[in-house]
C-alpha cells in the first residue's frame, strides 16, 4: 500500500516485449520517452506517459513501441541515454558495446574485446563523449574510430554489475559481483574500495556525490559515505513477516534480493530510495514481486507497490524528477506510475 506522498498511481503498462525486461531508463529531461532493454534481444522506445493517461480512470496499455532497435544477438542487459537524446548505448550478452543513433535506428559504433557478457553501460565526459562499460570498467571515446578503450580500470575480479558516472566530481562508481563497491576519481587518479562481502547488483551516486547507494544479494540496500565508506543507512534486510508503514497499515510483501540482479535508485530529490525486488522464494500466497520505497532519513517504508502475481522479479527501476517512475518486470511488461 503506497503512502499519500509517494506517486503510486498506475498510469501506463507497456506490453511491447515478449521476454523479461532487464533495463529501463527515461530519456533525458523532461523524460517524455522511456527506453527498455529485454531478453528478447531488442531495445524499445516508447512514450512514458500517454497524453490521456493522467485523465483516464483506467491504466493505459501500449502493445507497440514507437521504435524498435534490433541488432543484439543476445539479451540486452543495460541501456544508457545521452543528454541530447540523440544517442543511446546498450550492452548485453553479445560482449560488445552498441552505440545507437536514436532517429536513424542504427548502430554507429560497436566496441568489442570483452571476454564475457556486459551488464552495465553509462555515458560520461564533456558532451557525453565517453561511454563507460564493464566487464572490467572500460572507457570508450565516441569521437574517434579507435577500437581500443582510452582507459581500462581492472580492479574488479568478477563481473561489474552496475556503473554510475557522477560528472560534478569526475568520478565513476562501480559495483561488482566480487562484493566490492569501487569509486574512481578520474581527475585525481584515486580509487576508493569498500568491501560489502556480498555480490553487488546496483550502485548509484547521490546528486551531491557524497553518498553511494549499493544493493547486495543479502537483501540489503546500503547507503555509504563516499569519503570514508561508513554506513549511513540500510534499507530492506532479511524478509520479515510483514512490512510496516508509517500509518500503521501493513503490506503482505517483503523485500527480497537474494538471487538475481535487482537495481535500486534515489528518487524524489534523493529523499527516497526506490528498488525492485524478487518475489518470495516459494511465494505460496501468489503475491508476486513488488517495488519498494523507503524514506532516506527515517528508514521507514513509504510505499510497497505490487506488480502482480505473475511477476517473479522487478529487476530494474527508473525515476523521473517530474514525478514518474517505471519498473521493468520479468513478465515482459514495463509499468509506469505517477
Automatic annotation (TrEMBL):
Compartments, record wording: Cytoplasm
A GO BP annotation: mRNA splicing, via spliceosome
Listed SMART domains: WD40
One cellular component term from this protein's GO annotations in UniProt: catalytic step 2 spliceosome
Predominant localisation class: cytoplasm
Pfam families per UniProt: WD40
Protein origin, superkingdom: Eukaryota
UniProt xrefs under SUPFAM superfamilies: WD40 repeat-like
WD repeat segments: 69-110, 153-194
Segments passing through the bilayer: none
Alphabetically ordered keywords of this record: Cytoplasm, WD repeat
PANTHER family documented for this protein: WD REPEAT DOMAIN-CONTAINING PROTEIN 83 (PTHR22842:SF3), WD40 REPEAT PROTEIN (PTHR22842)
Family: Belongs to the WD repeat MORG1 family.
Protein name, entry field: Uncharacterized protein
